[in-house]
Amino acid sequence: MQKDSLNVPRVIHFVTGGFSGATQVAVDLCLAANTSQAMSVKLVLRQKRSTDALRVKALQDRGIDVQLVPGWSHLATILALKRICHQWHADILVAHGFSEHIWGRLAGLWAKVPVLVHVEHNSRERYTPWRLKLCQWLAGKTAAIVGVSEGVKSRLIELGFPINKCMAISNGIDGSKFETAPSMAWSDRQAHVIMASRFAKQKDQPTLIQAMRIRACLWR
Questions:
Q1: What is the mean pLDDT of each run of 10 residues along the chain (220 residues)?
Q2: 119 SS3 class
Q3: Which residues contact 203 (CB under 8 A, 6 or more apart)?
Q4: Is cis: bond before 183, omega within 30 of 0?
């Protein structure tokens, strides 16, 4: 396995440039790696129309090595990521989220990256029959298939991915980020509910809204 000048493995985290929850996980992993110096990391973002140059610059200012690859076609994405893997001599490619984990692993396989990792961030991804077959084939070339919860892991197994490669590493939050937030007594707080998710069918905001309506009726 290739090592850099610090004799640590070189790891690429590949994820959407749409700054989703998956992007934040990859960012946190890169920041943690930079702190520990246990590995050398690069963050590669698949460019979207919503990719914000200021947010990319902010990541770079925090010390993350960030590169963008085109997202206008799957082939353009694969070719650009393959080139980065070759030039940087990547040892490990961690491909986050659907469908980036498909194009990322194809690029890594083509570039002969020694270790490929698939990270699934949702349990309700839109797998077409062709994409599912492709992912099942890629699973044979993949060292580990990680679900960000036990539920996601169970769904991966249901989809036919090898049980011995599937594992759950639960999402977490660094609570120290909020230690300086002002505290407020429960009696002083507004009766609001916040759901931390984007507006998408798989996030199912209507169920939360319906549940709150039922709860409100019970309170009367």
A1: 68 96 94 93 96 96 98 98 98 97 98 98 92 98 97 97 97 81 84 80 86 78
A2: strand
A3: 195, 197
A4: no
Is the distance from CB of 154 to CB of 8 less than 8 angstroms?
no
Strand partners, 13: 43, 94
Torsion of CA 105, 73, 30, 127, to 10 degrees: -60
Q: Where in the chain are the domains?
A: 10-173
Strand partners, 69: 46
User: 131 φ, ψ to 5°?
Assistant: -65, -35
CATH number of the domain at 10-173, please? 3.40.50.2000
Of 96, 89, 95, 131, the C-alpha closest to 111 is 89
Report how far residue 202's alpha carbon sits from residue 207's, in angstroms, rounded to the nearest whole number: 11
Regarding pTM above 0.85, the answer is yes
Provide CB contacts within 8 A for 220, sequence distance 6+. Answer: none
Question: Among all chains, which residue has been given the structure tokens 């206008």?
Answer: 72
Both structure tokens of 63: 């010390």
Q: Is 9 helix (H, G, I), strand (E, B) or coil?
A: coil
- For the beta carbon of residue 118, count every other beta carbon within 10 angstroms: 29
Half-sphere exposure of 124 (CA within 13 A, CB side): 5
Please tell me the total number of residues recorded for the chain in this structure.
Answer: 220
